[in-house]
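In this supplementary section we document a worked example of the pipeline. Step one takes a protein sequence of length 216 as its only input; no multiple sequence alignment statistics are reported here. Step two produces a three-dimensional model, which step three serialises into structure tokens for compact storage. The input and output of this example are shown verbatim.
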Amino acid sequence: MRIVLVGPPGAGKGTQAAYLAKNLSIPHISTGDLFRANISQGTDLGKEAKSYMDAGNLVPDSVTIAMAEDRLNQEDARQGFLLDGFPRNLGQAEALDTYLKAKAVKLDAVLDLEVPEDEVVKRIAGRRICRNDSSHVFHVDYHKPKTEGVCDLCGGDLYQREDDREDTVRKRLEVYHTETEPIIDHYKAQDLVVTVPALGKVDEVTQRAMAALGKA
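The serialised model returned by step three reads:
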């Protein structure tokens, strides 16, 4: 299957993408992984992206699109893929349409993970990260540490990242509404959008998504 996964920050896209890709036996292709791979391998695209990032500038769509197309050309993506974080805007969606048309293949579905805005804010603003190890993540409501402000695993201090603060989260949501939501209408016009309620346990959301794809 060829799938695009969309949803606001905090919808659990990365988690669901990993589960769905495994269940469907297709590669999970995330924008973050594309950037990290190209930069660490020192590819021309990676060097170009890094030059923008080092200067504090946004990486142009042309570079992101080229990275995505390069990845989609790899052997493991020939029979299917799950795109997570790409396309991020209408220009990227149109570029993907052009690429797929040239390859004479089509998307099977665009999964839209739907989460109420207040829940997004609650999920992200409630996160607390360990200063000793950023993989130790807690939540003030959903995964409380035994002792407030102290990591259960190593005793390190727990803190709230700057980009997890409520005002920052709301700004990220504004960007999502302005830049990314228009691609949902773009794909609705192609009758590709499948809306999946993303509240509940991780496995419940995965089951809903698989059912929506007709794979349950």
